[in-house]
Amino acid sequence: MAMVIRVFLFLLVSFYAIPSFAIYEDQVGLMDWHQKYIGKVKQAVFHTQKAGRKRVVVSTEENVIASLDLRRGDIFWRHVLGSNDIIDEFDIAFGKYVVTLSSGGSILRAWNLPDGQMVWESYLQGSMPSKSFLCIPANLKIGKDNILLVFGRGCLHAVSSIDGDVIWRKELASESLEIKQVIQPLDSDIISAVGFVGSSQFVTYQIDAKSGHVLKHTSENFPGGFSGELSFVSNDMLVALDTTRSTLVSISFGDGVTSFHQTSISDLVESSSGMATILPSKFTGMVAIRINSVVVFVRVTGVDKLEVVEKINYPAAVSDPLSFSEGQQAFAFVQNGESKIDITVKHANDWNKNLLKESIEMDQQRGNVEKIFINNYIRTDRTYGFRALIVMEDHSLLLLQQGEIVWSREDGLASIIDMTTSELPVEKEGVSVAKVEHSLFEWLKGHMLKLKGTLMLASPDDIVAIQGMRLKSSEKNKMTRDHNGFRKLLIVLTRAGKLFALHTGDGRVVWSLLLPTFRRSEACPNPTGLNMYQWQVPHHHAMDENPSVLIVGRCGLGSDASGVLSFVDSYTGQELNSLNLAHSIEHIIPLPFTDSTEQRLHLLIDANKRAYLYPRTPEALNICQLELSNIYWYLIEADKDIIRGHALQKTCNLEMPDEYCFNTRELWSIIFPSDSEKIIATERRKSNEVVHTQAKIVDHDAMFKYVSKNLLFVATVSPKGAGEIGSATPEESSLVVYLLDTITGRILHRVTHHASQGPVHAVFSENWVVYHYFNLKAHRYEMSVIEIYDQSRADNKDVWKLILGKHNLTSPISSYSRPEVMVKSQSYFFTHSVKAMAVSLTAKGITSKQLLIGTIGDQVLALDKRFLDPRRTLNPTQAEKEEGIIPLSDSLPIIPQSYVTHSLQVEGLRSIVTIPTKLESTSLVFSYGVDLFFTRIAPSRIYDSLTEDFSYALLLLTIVALIAAIFVTWVLSEKKELREKWR
């Protein structure tokens, strides 16, 4: 009987002790979620002519080209180009290609319209930077090839649409020449290129489309000069603005003869005031002018015949003209209301006729309309209908049709600039927010599916249903805290000035707020968000108080622009308060102090190096004054290659006394020689990182980590190596790394990597820093690690001194004393380029660390810190093996199962954020770029709880089997004993 029990226990332990380095396919989506976005749309082209999938192709400010389903807004396909490969223009060519022009007119690509596969790519040569544009003639052929006309880098190119070969190239740009447009009249082999030389000379070229030869070149001076804006009204006439922006200049250039005619805007529009701008529209025989808040449409019937046909007051956006039938054009404009928008579609040939006029209720948190694109369709009664694609102030994208919002996309989440987290409220006693089952049948059905899955009898459809049930689990998506700390709110700030609160359970938007303080106004014409900080985090006993966050921004682009502050409730998304500051904001310092209301103190440094305390309360002022001598800060002037350390002094001497303002004094400065070193990267420890122990056992001896929060990692590179990889030879470039004390400015460690170059990505944790760079001599990427230990505490390792009390552990430690440190370092080859780096954080700092590396493939790789131990040797000793030291190798391993993003890609990856949970073994990971990805990781595996996929049913079956075995064994044993007694 005892033997049977031992066998069953061994099998049970063996079953549950099998190590798992990855997850199963049906576990994807249980602890993680992935959301795809495209960003704020710049251009849109509809493709609805043929039967089948109706789609709209868009390019965005996040450098994305994508094809969207017109019915639902889903992404058919998309491509995220590099940050240096900006999309200039794109269009749909010949009904089967999407042609994109990027990189300042130097790269032309053709993508297959149905599936987005690249058909060809062409690199266009040129001698000088210039404006670039793309022209797709309707019927211009050379032989059997349709050609594309591209102007970029000062040259006009004719490119074959079949394979992207350049048929001919003509250099047109010279110094101060700017070509504005290329025109190809129908049924003509002669194309015209027009532009300006300087601000007063108008030039035209007539070019043979088949050979590229210049047939005619004209140049005419205009005494008034041009502002540079123009609009073509026909193939031989355009309208431009003079330098004063008060006169319209009609330019006729047909038959090689150029003539000018001036018309004062005040003669066309009475009581017009303000600077005029020409809208970049393509109306036939018409030009659109914006004067302040009015758009004026002017019909041009001759070089000297201009007449106003319509004035529209306060339009938010005007669309490009749409040809919806032969010779007929329509355009749309939208006007913002208090809680709605008004869309009007007008007939460009009959201004008294509205083809469409609708009012649509709109969420005020989306802001105003910024862009509109229209498309037509044929209704069942054979009349023309119109749909509108609009881009809102918060960067969201909506499709409107028949007075309703067909679909919407929250593409503002593609431009996150900062994020923080907030705990959810505590679930009150007697109140359950869990979802109940709809009926007994659904309850039984769910449990039957789970039983089939446990017994491995589930079909593929059943597995999908089980996974869907897991994803909809109420326990995961509750709006209250859980005892493990997995459920939180991710509060993100986007470039549009909008806040989103995302639930960690499934990534849904709990609330969103378009910050009123960060919207354009007369007082703040160009608001920009900077950072977000925890403002008020109530203690765990303050259950009735809501936490809040602080959003810091500027009313302008320069560092000397005045600052703005906004305070937002983390649970409701309501703006509690906002401040328009009289001073600028150059640097923000969150202080480690809170007042009695749990508000955290912050110092805002302006351009004059004065520090302003927030919150502006007497209690906060008293706290700050008590700690005034212990507050230090530093400023990195990367453009000047200088780092300066500062301390606070007494209050400022201003015209208007301000007791919450403090002067600062410079304590130290480090000036890197500009002819040999340039700052390219800095990094410091996270303020919320917890270090479990300062001691580390090395060779049976205790070493103390140097865990000062004042350490700063600085990487510099020689000026010739500051460019892209390969811009300098190995002899010309070297990388220098420093560890600085920001209190004294003392350099604790310096190391030089010869023949190395940036970019440098680094992560700083506890007493070590890991950084990534490129080795020019080896032609490979490298990762180096530096660990720093405190030698001043070496005497504390003597146990007898501790017992006899012969040393003083209570002696004060000063940042001004010279530390005795010991440094260990090592370098390894790494096969990937890196976009971002982070380190796992846990609640107590006990769990071993993992590096989270954002690779060039937009995936997140988890790398055990033990691989980057500087004590690794080829043949570790027995003591080192007991410590877990891995034998030395020249390269870091890439284990496919270590990708926390699995097979998914976080397109445009910019940052990785790690968040500790209450469960010490687990850390939350949130990575964002154009896409969002969230998951949970366990660097040392889950050792303090059962996993979510733990099979309770199998455990129950095992217990039942054990009880049955015990009972059977007991019966057999009793029978055996009875037989022995009868002998």
From TrEMBL:
Residues 765-982 form the ER membrane protein complex subunit 1 C-terminal domain. The lineage of its organism: Eukaryota, Viridiplantae, Streptophyta, Embryophyta, Tracheophyta. The keyword Cell inner membrane does not apply. Its main location: endoplasmic reticulum. It is a single-pass type I membrane protein. Keywords: Endoplasmic reticulum, Glycoprotein, Membrane, Signal, Transmembrane, Transmembrane helix. SMART domains: PQQ (SM00564). One of its GO terms (cellular component) is EMC complex. InterPro entries: Beta-prop_EMC1_1st (IPR058545), EMC1 (IPR026895), EMC1_C (IPR011678), PQQ_b-propeller_rpt (IPR018391), Quinoprotein_ADH-like_sf (IPR011047), WD40/YVTN_repeat-like_dom_sf (IPR015943). Residues 1-22 form the signal peptide. It is found in: Endoplasmic reticulum membrane. It holds the Pfam family Beta-prop_EMC1_N. Component of the ER membrane protein complex (EMC). This is ER membrane protein complex subunit 1. The chain crosses the membrane at residues 950-973. One of its GO terms (biological process) is protein folding in endoplasmic reticulum. Residues 22-411 form the EMC1 first beta-propeller domain. Belongs to the EMC1 family.
